[in-house]
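Amino Acid Chain and Its Fold in Token Form
===========================================
Structure side: the spatial fold of the chain, written down as a series of whole-number tokens.
Position: the record begins directly beneath this header, with no further notes in between.
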Amino acid sequence: AQARTAAQGLANVTFLTSPLESLVLDTPVDAIVGRKILIHLRQPGLVLQHLVAYLRPGGVVAFVENDFADDPITAPPVPLLTEYIRWCREVTLRSGLNPAAGRNLHHTFLAAGLHAPEQRLECRFFSGRDSPEYELAAAVLRGLLPRLLAMGIASEAEVGIETFADRLRAQVLGLGAVCSADRLVSAWAS
């Protein structure tokens, strides 16, 4: 990130490494922006409240979060995609986190002392042989696999990580299905 900002000639950008709940800033900021981060926090409202203390008057708070509390939207149903979302949801729940972080952004903002945010739901759909979604789902699943197995949610044989992307592609193509990718909820307030 530092190399990219330097290459663009941005001298007013600073990077800090700190747990969000204990972040200390020397000066107020104009914006607090996050993408797919609050879903990883047990108390996102409290963390956001801590961060908002550093926001200048009139500053903007904007976040985008996943929401996979429901099964994917598919026509017709794609059992392997539904199972994948169920596995992700279960790991998230058993980790004490909230798979509905996106739809709960309104409440998270209010808990942080902010005004009710403007919000938007976005969802891309995929189908066909060349969609990157098959490999993306397999990459997410590969990252979750140790916890998925340790929690007893699924076995290695059920997941079949080495062939997951190909099996998902084959199922979508075989059914002629159209499927929802990540459902992203954005929220912003000043």
